[in-house]
Amino acid sequence: MAQVELEADSVLTGEEEDESLLLSMSSSSNKLQTREGWWTTFVLYDGCWMDRQAAMSVSLVRAQFVPRDDDVLLATYPKCGTTWLKALSFAIANRHRHPVVSAGHHPLLTQSPHDLVPFIELPFRHIHPLAAALDAIPSPRLLGTHMPHHLLPPRIGCRIVYLCREPKDVVISTWHFMNKVIEGFSIDFDKAFELFVDGCSPFGPIWNHYLGYWNKHVEEPDRVLFLKYDDMMADPAGHVKKLAEFLRVPFTDDEVDAGVVEEVVRLCSFEKLSRLPVNSSVVAGRVGVDERPMKNSVFFRKGKVRDWKNYLTEEMAKKLDAAIEEKLKGSGLTL
Ligand code: PAP
């Protein structure tokens, strides 16, 4: 990838200018493929569908992000449980500074998990400078990303926690989310579903996203932890212990006996977090895909497994299952 110097606060002036910048930073020298996406035109940026603004931001992160060896990256395809993973990881990693037992003043009670663990590519980094936001965070940093593995900044070698989710629940969650955050979002669900099955969804295809991190996990299991939302729902305490070991802050026997693991699970549960004023009524300074301030409540809907049963016809479910099965065949990954 060519190293391109961009002004971090440069404002886009037009599609042609964007296109030439994107081309100079992607591995493609041909015009980027475009397609009518969920709420705007999507571009296929090095095999990954996203809107133009996201592509600009990803490009900038790839060129400018300064990784540290002791960073831990929490990576997800959107709507796979990012908020939950951020909360759990923050609570576990910081539990000596911020005890979770009798956690009257815990930061998770007054701040969104997305403010405690920022994304590297969001808010869009060609508009909101990257360095100022991320360089100031003391080590070891917990950072989030929706970027697929093959688009991560080339020098990233840190540990990664990846969380995936049943794709049928992901498409439902994504559609509801877009309805909340994008003004004038009007795509009907059937159309969104067809785009998703076709691989055209934000940071899609979802199977490529899963496989990129899965293959890295198979190659380097000690560096890339691969988790599943449904398994985490079934056994949150077991996953909290596993996460703590991976983050190199395992629970001591005394902590286990004192119920600290269960306290982390409780503090980070959907029921607890979604009812806090900060997550139910605060409009964050953070902005979303259309640059409007977002309510923190958009990250909390139902927090259930198999909610897709309330929305997908049997035919739709079979169609998506078949597409996923075909794409994951031979990888060893099952969902
Ligand atoms: P993001 O990828 O846009 O950052 P993400 O947190 O992955 O958001 O997506 C939100 C989903 O996680 C929602 O799922 P749903 O639409 O199926 O309900 C949300 O309810 C769920 N979620 C948020 N917090 C929690 C939590 N603490 N435990 C379990 N699920 C959660």
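^ 3'-phosphate-adenosine-5'-diphosphate complex. The longest helix spans residues 167-181. The chain is about 40% helix and 10% strand.
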